[in-house]
Amino acid sequence: MVIKKMHDMGIRSEHAYMAALGSIGLSIASWMGSLTMEPGAGIARADRWGIFVGQWAPTFFGLGVALSHYEQQDGTLTATVHELREQRQAG
Questions:
Q1: What are phi and psi of 55, to 5 degrees?
Q2: Does the predicted model carry a pTM greater than 0.85?
Q3: Which of 4, 29, 46, 52 is close enough to 35 for a disulfide, judged by CB 3.0 to 4.6 Å?
Q4: What is the C-alpha to C-alpha distance for residues 59 and 43, in angstroms, rounded to an integer?
């Protein structure tokens, strides 16, 4: 199982969500960079770069959801939520 292997490697749902948000930012940056650095190529080429990188985000969000479900099943996520609640009540 890929998700279990990723979890065993230390990759958590938060990492996948951050990668998804980063890919959205990188998509915008690559689109703007292509417009700036390749003015002769036109907007169509910039759009292709932006879309190419932007398509990574759904994959990372999907992995984040799958990892989150695994963490809930494994008890990893639940323990963290309980610890946060205890800290909030204590503080």
A1: -75, -10
A2: no
A3: 46
A4: 25
